[in-house]
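Collaborator request, handled under Task 6.
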Amino acid sequence: VDPSSLDNIAWKVENPTISIETMPNQFRRLEIPVQVLGEVSGMVYFKDGQEQRGLGRIRVQVKNEQGVIVAQFLTEGDGYFTYLGLEPGEYTAMIDQEQLEVLDFKSSEVQSFNIEISEFGDIVDDIEFILQKRDDQ
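Structure tokens returned to the collaborator:
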């Protein structure tokens, strides 16, 4: 099964190889189980005084309810990020603490969000982080 042939980008085929037996002059219905995934997206900004701009190459981590990192990715050059591949459930998104320490930045709070069960997948697109230098108030 070619995953790119599915009608929705949020559908993932768990077993792309399926073995079937053909019978002459007979039709069989073949059901292919798919996993419906969710997407999270948002922005990371750097605030310098009154000026605020998008910040690229910042590591964003997504943790599940148990606190396990299930996704980690970098922001684009303008601060935008997106990740498709989250199963339904409760998640928290945060900026990687190690990177914040190296850059001497502080971040706005952890962002909680929920991926709902849906036939077409769920999209959460309102996640925002604001980074500042640690010595700024």
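The cover message to the collaborator said: "The chain has a mean pLDDT of 91. The longest helix spans residues 97-103. Please let us know whether this matches your experimental observations."
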